[in-house]
Amino acid sequence: MELQAKREESSSNSLQMKVFDSIEDFRSWRGAVVGDVGVVTTMGYLHRGHEALVRAAREQNKVLVATIFINPAQFAPGEDLEAYPRDEKRDLETCRLLGVDAVFMPPRDEIYPPGFGTYVETESGKPSQNLYSEGSSRPTFFRGVATVVLKLFNIIQPKRAYFGRKDAQQCVVIQNTVRDLNVPVEIIIEPTVREHDGLALSSRNVYLNREERSKATILYSALTAGISAFENGETDADELRNIVTSEAKKEEGFALGYVSIADMNTMKEQQGTVKTGILAIAGHIGKTRLIDNMILE
User: Fold this and answer.
1) How far is CA 199 from CA 208, 219, 294, in A?
2) Nearest-angstrom CA–CA distance, 116 and 198
């Protein structure tokens, strides 16, 4: 559903949406809030996938907070931290139209002040657990995600937090962090939102030129081939990975990074017979790195 020009109904007056850039000011406001708080954490440049999360959170909570913060801790050297797309004005208007009560969008040094040196390490997704994952391809990624999400949960104090299935590996890391550290936040995972041709929505899709965009559907096609084989009785992990890999290699413009079938709770790479799992793919089209996944169940 496209974002409408008319403001959606909500339990609060979206014209009074608050915007905070400091932890102190946000906490002052948060201390007066009564009722369940839901949060949608984002890095901005919002698209229909984010909008779906906000809508779900708006329906289930009295108070809705969105965060916009491009987290440097999850980017490795040479990645697109500085180039990551930004449009704060549009993002704030999107939040306002969807009935967000408050937006927390701090500068980097508010989250990582001088002298910061405490990070959350997780076993989930480490190369020792899975050589075919974001944790192996981007060694600092999950540490950065777990750290910033835990910090945001401490600041926002939500009852519920909403994440998209497109980032399934990240979702496992967050769920395990919350469980292991006894964080009283319910993690709600919403379905991946896709374009008409299957491409999963991502802020990084804006990097793709027209020719690259047409090639990007190969991720969806490759995953669909794996899902089809599984639904037709193929349960061997190696064979399923081979099916997805073979399909992905049909697109010469796609540089395959990995194909993974990971346990949905531990993110360990599966071998032998598969009953359920996260079927994931990653790779580059031109300079743009894309990821996608589907659930085997």
Assistant:
1) 12, 7, 12
2) 41
What is the C-alpha separation between 148 and 151, in angstroms, rounded?
5
pTM across the whole model: 0.93
pLDDT band at 128 (very low <50, low <70, confident <90, very high): confident
Torsion angle, CA of 91/163/135/274, rounded to 10 degrees?
-140
Residue 56: enclosing H or E segment and its boundaries? helix 48-60
- 3-state DSSP call for residue 237? helix
The Cα 141–Cα 135 span in angstroms is: 6
Please, what's the b/e burial string for 205-231 (b: 16 or more CB within 10 A of its CB; e: otherwise)?
Answer: bebbeeebbebbbbbbebbbbbbebbe
H/E segment holding residue 52: helix 48-60
Pairing of strands 186-190, 63-68: unpaired
State how far the Cα of 44 lies from the Cα of 67, in Å rounded to an integer.
Answer: 8
**101-118 tens-digit pLDDT:** 999 999 999 999 999 999
The DSSP secondary-structure symbol of 83 reads T
Position 297: which residue type? E
In whole angstroms, give the CA distance from residue 131 to residue 111: 30
Tokens of 30: 């948060």
Which residues are designated catalytic? Answer: 50
- Mention every residue, 6+ apart, whose C-beta is less than 8 A from residue 160: 36, 37, 38, 39, 57, 60, 61, 185, 186, 187, 188
Distance CA 284, CA 138 (A): 14
H/E/C letters for each residue in 125-156?
CCCCCCCCCHHHHCCCHHHHHHHHHHHHHHHH
User: Are the C-beta atoms of residues 68 and 42 closer than 8 Å to each other?
Assistant: yes
As beta bridge partners, residue 20 has: 104
